[in-house]
Amino acid sequence: MAGGVGARFWPYSRNSRPKQFLDFLGTGRSLLQMTYDRMIKLVPKENILIVTNKTYRDMVLEQLPLVTARQVLLEPARRNTAPCIAYAAARVYAANKNGVMVVVPSDHLITKEDEFVEAAAKGLDFVTNHDAILTLGITPSRPETGYGYIQAGQEVENGIRKVKTFTEKPNAELAKVFMESGEFYWNSGMFFWSVKTIRNAFRKFLPDTFAKFEMGHAFMGTDSEQAFIDEYFPSCQKISIDYGVMEHATNTHVLFGDFGWSDLGTWGSLHDVLPKDEDNNAKPKGKSLCYDSKGNIVVVPKGKIAVVQGLENYVVVDSDNALLICRMEEEQRIRQFVNDVSLMENGEEFI
Amino acid sequence: MAGGVGARFWPYSRNSRPKQFLDFLGTGRSLLQMTYDRMIKLVPKENILIVTNKTYRDMVLEQLPLVTARQVLLEPARRNTAPCIAYAAARVYAANKNGVMVVVPSDHLITKEDEFVEAAAKGLDFVTNHDAILTLGITPSRPETGYGYIQAGQEVENGIRKVKTFTEKPNAELAKVFMESGEFYWNSGMFFWSVKTIRNAFRKFLPDTFAKFEMGHAFMGTDSEQAFIDEYFPSCQKISIDYGVMEHATNTHVLFGDFGWSDLGTWGSLHDVLPKDEDNNAKPKGKSLCYDSKGNIVVVPKGKIAVVQGLENYVVVDSDNALLICRMEEEQRIRQFVNDVSLMENGEEFI
What we know:
Two copies of one chain form a homodimer. The longest helix of chain A has 17 residues, at 113-129. Chain A contains eleven helices and 14 strands. Chain A is globular, with a radius of gyration of 21 Å. By secondary structure, chain A is of the alpha/beta class. Chains A and B meet through strand 11, strand 12, strand 13, strand 14 and helix 11 of A and strand 11, strand 12, strand 13, strand 14 and helix 11 of B.
């Protein structure tokens, strides 16, 4: 899944260059490329599908030279994850009615790749043999209020447990209880299922979306596929797979582990995973000199220098034609700032 | 005088593009150009001399297209204001032994131009008729500790008074006493004298410098002038006109007024004179959106946007390959920061 816009990372991410296409960690590989590198350890590379927005087609093909145009599924409109997954499932089903799928966002970070690949192989194996929806759960390392939580029930086999409940972003108190209970895991948004299982789930919980892609079955993988998608995809209900399917399904399971995972949802979460200096300042990309400054993330382009004096717990991002300075604890307001900028005269130049 | 480097305005000013050449107020005219515009109201334009560093020659000629190369005096080394003025005086003396001079820095701001021109005309008239060194004093508007103060004595004529004392940057307590006394004026660094008078002063107080330029008299205004200057100027004592001459001379006078003057010595003083929004934020140049922010100066290039949240009394300057964020009350440390940057690997690219 590579269709998001990453507005929370403005001005580093832009409409024309969203989060998954950026080299967030200064490693020389974008998040999308890092995700691809990880998945080819698990899946034959010709079986990888990238679902993205039409406008990002060329960027995907440029960043992933081993991917062919036919492997890139193009959404003509943003409809959240459920239609995205229904489209991918339709394509897999057309190729192999007994196929199994692993679905991953392309803009997350996983630092413990071997642990991830091992767990994911186990997950694929499980859904090959069970009519089960399996999610990858992350052992919580802090009472995070920004994530969804999965409550695990009894073990089915080999570390895989039934899901009791899904809870969207809890408040701080509840998050603390969740964490201390040892029963709750972060919902990573990574899923395993057979096409049969996910088709049944769509048929049951999102029947309109299911019917659309049934109608398109004959076009999948043909030269008419894009025309069909352009016609019917925009009318799909805009809903996430979590709300649309996971919270209703009864055959959901969770496989949990510690994969050094972060959804990199905010500058704060990026700060958490980046290397930091002795004053807890993270300075990826260009050079930065910090004086009397603690707990900041300072991002300037390569070849630029930042001199920062007297800042604590700020996000400082200089990217192209925009500069953002914002308290880290206020970073959820960045979306609003971007909206304000977009309403200025010629504001679209900056977003 | 247009030879300074303006290190305190880094990163907006650079070694290659110092303060006087910059359009500080976003008016479309640099401080040098604004100074020129002011002086041609007072002095025939062919009589204006610009003393600058050799490396800035082309920039002067580009910014002042009405100035000929012969009017630009080129210092091969930085020697502070006394040698600069001795050189200009030598050139004026070679042209006219009875000449009078007005000497002004090219990187100050004067907003009340008519009042200035009127006072300066009076000043030129006074030094035409008296063997007097005359300085322009500024009625203090606050107990500023960053300026030199002139104590005025008895009136000689028409608002022009004898100088009793010069006091360099006083402490806060003394500055307050000075201001309340009504006897003290800020030393603006603008001077009037006849060449005869200033030559006598140099002969008496800086005899080595005087002797050098006496030796060069025959070269002034000829094709050999630059060779002479290149040879002898660097060996002049590095000293300001205030320390070298003004504090010793007995025939010093002061003409004071309110000219909307600022030496623009710091970002703070620039903040004082710029238009500000309702939260006291000054935002010259590019666009800026400020949230929960007060008393800042935010400078981004034209065509760039800054979004600033949660800053009070900061200097934010984004210019080319450098970004500075610094508490305004710590801005005297900018010189040190620039020095630290210069010591980094390839640091000279940034200064």
